[in-house]
From TrEMBL:
Keyword Chaperone recorded: yes
Alphabetical list of CDD domains matching this protein: DnaJ (cd06257)
Protein name in UniProt: DnaJ domain-containing protein
Family matches, as Pfam families: DnaJ, DNAJ_related
Organism name: Beggiatoa leptomitoformis
Stretches assigned to the J domain: 140-192
Length: 192
């Protein structure tokens, strides 16, 4: 059950979702909440890490409550994704809310909002970008080998050996291409 203090915000968010049946992105929803001067959504740039995190957290807290409310009322199923938040038709027999959902647990705990500092947000962002760049490097390395995830290590090694044999300078290949293959394999060995 959502707190009495957050009930007006929940109604505004629900109204926004209902007026966007095709879905709405989190960024646009945050901007709309700022434009309508909702409590907890100050008019600050959405590039300031701590206020952005606080607004994001509060919005997702409300969204998870709305998801449960809609599901219990059998009036809809709320899909929550930063790129697209959308109310979908309720489907009988779906048991999405009984599954273990660590994100839900995090956002439903308001103490997380209270205890998260600017330093914590900076650390979270740094970890995110590190993981993001690692995934990007892995994908680039796989592309060099002509592969895509999901792929196992044996397939990667087999493809690498094939390409090294084909492009080795002793067999008429190109040194630059061989170096590119070696660099890609080095990235892939670190990412497994």
């Amino acid at each position: 059950m959502i707190t009495e203090q957050l009930q007006p915000l929940a109604q505004v968010v629900l109204h926004q979702l209902q007026t966007h049946p095709q879905g709405i992105g989190e960024y646009e929803l945050l901007k709309q909440l700022q434009r309508t001067n909702q409590t907890g959504f100050p008019s600050v740039a959405l590039t300031e890490p701590l206020p952005l995190f606080q607004m994001h957290f509060l919005l997702f807290h409300v969204l998870y409550h709305l998801r449960e409310q809609l599901y219990q009322e059998k009036t809809g199923e709320l899909q929550i994704n930063p790129l697209k938040i959308q109310i979908m038709p309720y489907q009988v027999g779906q048991n999405a809310l009984t599954e273990n959902d660590p994100l839900r647990d995090f956002y439903m705990d308001l103490s997380q909002l209270e205890k998260t500092t600017a330093e914590d947000v900076t650390t979270l962002l740094a970890k995110f970008w590190t993981r993001f760049h690692a995934i990007d490097k892995r994908q680039s390395a796989l592309n060099t080998l002509g592969l895509q995830d999901p792929v196992d290590n044996e397939t990667i090694k087999y493809r690498y050996r094939q390409l090294v044999m084909q492009h080795h300078p002793d067999r008429g290949g190109n040194t630059t291409t061989l170096q590119t293959l070696n660099a890609a394999m080095a990235v892939l060995e670190k990412s497994t």
